Automatic annotation (TrEMBL):
Transmembrane segments: 7-31, 57-76, 88-110, 130-153, 165-187
Lineage: Eukaryota, Fungi, Fungi incertae sedis, Mucoromycota, Glomeromycotina
Name the UniProt record assigns to this protein: 6372_t:CDS:1
Keyword list, A-Z: Membrane, Transmembrane, Transmembrane helix
Domain of life: Eukaryota
Amino acid sequence: MVKLENWASWVTLTLTSLNVILGAALLYYLIKVKKQPFFLSATRERGIIRPRPVHSFQLIALLYNAVLLFNVICLITESYPYVIFAELGHFLPLAVCVSLAIFCPISLIYSTPNIGCSNAFTNTTFIDVMAFFFMINPYLLILPTALLSGYYADRDDIETAMLYFKINFISWTIVSIAYFLLVVYFYHKLISVINCQIKNQVESQGSIQKIGSNIICSNSDINTWKRAKRNVLAAFLPTRSRYAILNLENVKLIELK
C-alpha cells in the first residue's frame, strides 16, 4: 500500500481528478446535450481549424489534467523505472497545454462577426499554418531534448543531462515568446474588428445619450460589442490600476492610470 508521504501530490491528485471529471462532463453537455459541435460551421471567412471558444477551453482543461493525473499517479506510486520516462511524464502535460493553447485565440477570431470590416482576418491560410505549427512544435522541438536529458541522466552523465536540460528550457522560452507575439498580433486584429463593428452599429442604428460624464447607449448590440471589447482587453491588462473606457463618440480607447 502506498504511504501518504507527500501531501502536496495527493492534493494535486484530488484536484486534477475533479478537473478531469468536470471537463469531460462539460464537454459532453455542450456537444451532446446542447447539440453544439466542437468546430464552427465552415465558411469562406474561416479556416480548417475553427474550434468554438468554450469547447476549446474545456478540451485543454480536460486533456491537460488527464495527462497530469497520469504523471502524478506514476510519481506517487514510483512507477517510472527510468529517468527518461519521468522526463517524458513531466513534459507531456506542458506539451498538451501548449499545443492546444492556440485554439483559444483562433476560436475568438472565428466566432467574432467581421462583416463590413476591411481590417478583418482574411488570410485563413496563415492562421491554419500557425495553428498547425504550434500544435506540433512542442513535440518536434522540445520533446527530443527532454528525452535526451533523461537518457543521459540514466547513464549518470549529469553534465550532458544538464546541458540538454538547459537547451530544453531555452526551447520552451523561444516557443513562449513566439506564442506571445502571435497572440499580440491576433489581439490587435481582433480589437480592430470589434472597433469596426461598434462604429458600424453607431453609424447605422445606435442611439447615444450623454448624461453628465456617462455615455448611455440604447442599442443592445452596441452594448454587447462594448462588453466584448472590455472582456478582451481585461485579459491583456497586467494590473488593476488601469481601466479601459470605451468612448462611443469616436470609438477610441481611453486608458486611465
